[in-house]
Amino acid sequence: MSLARFLDLADLSPEEIRDLLALADRLQQHPEPQALAGKILGLIFLNPSLRTLASMQAGMARLGGSSFVITPGHGTWALETRTGVAMDGAAAEHVREGLPVLASYCDVMGIRAFAEGHDLANDVADTHFKSMAALIKKPLINLESAINHPCQALADWKTLDDLHIAPRTKFVLSWVPHPRALPLAVPAATAHMAALRGHEVVVLRPDGFALPDAVIDRARAAARLSGGSITETDDRDSALKGAHVVYAKEWGSTRHYGDAEADASLRRSLTNWQLTEQTFAQATPHCKLMHCLPVRRNVAIAESLLDGPRSVVLQEAHNRLVVQMAILYRLLK
Ligand code: CP
């Protein structure tokens, strides 16, 4: 089985997802340090990262390949991504030249390009990432776009498998506080992944933070395939009761999308949505706490929960390395 691109878990059949997870396990148990010898991975980060950047480079090196990293405007030319503009500002080069040039130097590319955060419809449609992806003919990996983070979703799926968490269990995606609006990529990818894995998915969020209809519709379609379900609520007691997994995540108000002031005003009244021992106690006794990281301690999640036995956030982060090795292998071999 080989892959042409890894842009969205929804592009893969259930067999392809199972194949990637099995390959990730195999590479973990039986390393292949020369599998991608001579191959080059090009990484373009238009936004910051810790896990994605380090795990992609480490994964490529563990398979015998090498990589280069471009963070436009930091030691390289700043890249213009808009079309039809007069380039009389800071950006010296346009992605229309820059990306194909970089692609010609490598065998596989990865791009991180977060949401612009102004226009919800554009961001939900992933217009920005898709226009860049169209410029590259080589194998390509989505390292987090406006509305998707498939590498995180696959790593989280593996973490659930490793923990033997059965598909037909309650999976709560819980909004948690953050000082400012964050993108919808992880909540959208997580809701879809958990629905596709067959969970009873409950999206728990305050009023004003409902996930866009298109995101819920996609997750609902995935649930129909797997026998899972998806619902949304702002009732914390009923949502957390009986949960086997609580996946905490911060995101911006969809009611006030692109309006930082209105978003800030709304979220100021929601600091009590921090996940604490007290709120977590309503879940099942062995309920696992997930978060993609980075996380703000004692803002989003209480320190005691993060440091406690139910937290699996470090396992999730490690699995980024493991599943991305499988993705690179299937793209290049
Ligand atoms: N979870 C995740 O993608 O982490 P980084 O932003 O550090 O890459």
Classify the helix fraction into a percent range: 25-40%
Pattern of helices and strands: HEHEEEHEHHEHEHEHEHEHHEHH
CATH topology of the largest domain: Rossmann fold
Unreliable spans = none
Terminal residue distance? 9 Å
Radius of gyration: 20 Å
- Which class do the helix and strand fractions yield? alpha/beta
Main beta sheet: strand number and arrangement? 5 strands, parallel
How would you write the strand order of the largest sheet?
A: 9-8-7-10-11
In a nutshell, what does this entry contain?
The protein contains 13 helices and eleven strands. With 333 residues, the chain is an alpha/beta fold.
Per-chain topology:
Layout: H1 14-29, E1 40-45, H2 51-62, E2 66-70, E3 79-80, E4 93-94, H3 95-103, E5 108-112, H4 120-124, H5 127-133, E6 140-142, H6 150-162, E7 170-175, H7 185-196, E8 200-204, H8 213-226, E9 229-233, H9 236-240, E10 245-249, H10 260-268, H11 277-280, E11 288-290, H12 303-306, H13 313-332
Parallel strand pairs: 1-2, 1-5, 3-4, 5-6, 7-8, 7-10, 8-9, 10-11
Bound molecules: phosphoric acid mono(formamide)ester.
Describe this structure in words.
With 333 residues, the chain is of the alpha/beta class. It folds into two domains: 9-148 and 320-332, Aspartate/ornithine carbamoyltransferase (Rossmann fold); 164-311, Rossmann fold (3-Layer(aba) Sandwich), CATH 3.40.50.1370. The chain is built from 13 helices and eleven strands. The protein has a five-stranded parallel sheet. The protein has a four-stranded parallel sheet with strand order 2-1-5-6, covered by helices on one side. Strands 3-4 form a two-stranded parallel sheet. Helix 8 (213-226) links the parallel strand 8 and strand 9. Helix 1 (14-29) packs across helix 13 and helix 6 (150-162) packs across helix 13. It is globular and about 55 Å long. The model has no long low-confidence stretch (mean pLDDT 97). The site of phosphoric acid mono(formamide)ester has 9 residues, from helix 2.
